[in-house]
Amino acid sequence: MVIRPKLYRSNEFLALESLPENAGRILELVNGEIVEKLPSFKPSKLTMRIGHFLLSFADDLGHVTGADGGYVMSETDVFNPDVGYISKKRLPVLPEREVPVPPDLAVEVKSPTDTKRALRLKVERYLAAGTRLVWLVFPEERVVEVYTPSEDVHTVGIDGLLDGGDVLPGFTLKVKDIFAGLD
User: Fold this and answer.
1) In this predicted model, what pLDDT tens digit does every residue of 42-53 receive, in sequence order?
2) SS (H, E, C) the chain
3) What gap in Å lies between CA 140 and CA 111, rounded to an integer?
4) Residue 3, pLDDT above cutoff 70
């Protein structure tokens, strides 16, 4: 007999996530299944660096969020990007809890418990929900994969430059600055 996990809708998930026993846990709903994001120091450091650069540039333009800021992507997806950005035009004021729309930019940093396949499937769900720019950061390879709805994936190496595209016009970030001081 095959036992399938219970699949949740976003409203059920949000109710479960807010229970006292889940305080301090970072949970996501991915295609109806609850997934816990586990902390890891190297990805956390990279996440903080990226968030710092984005916050320094975009604080007046929008909201930069961390991994505990959930975005309701669809009825079966509630994601907590490691770093998220949403413009104040789309969301003038951040709500107390989950953001009811997808971020404009989502950054996911691969942790030891992530698989590349799972992260890339998540990118597809981000783009399908309306996210306009996704960066997948791979600490071991020191590269960033850049995804947009209208273009093929673009890999930016350690000597390359990320840009905010039409999401954050004028924003640039050297990939080597993300990884500086990592060793």
Assistant:
1) 889 999 999 999
2) CCCCCCCCCHHHHHHHHCCHHHCCCEEEEECCEEEEECCCHHHHHHHHHHHHHHHHHHCCCEEEEECCCCEEEECCEEECCCEEEEECCCCCCCCCCCECCCCCEEEEECCCCCCHHHHHHHHHHHHHHCCCEEEEEECCCCEEEEEECCEEEEEECCCCEEEECCCEEEEEEEHHHHHCCCC
3) 10
4) no
Token code pair at residue 28: 């996501």
Domains, the chain: 40-179 (3.90.1570.10)
Binned at pLDDT 50, 70 and 90, residue 38 comes out as confident
Per the CB < 8 A criterion, the answer to whether 113 and 40 are in contact is: yes
The CA distance from 59 to 38, in Å, is 27
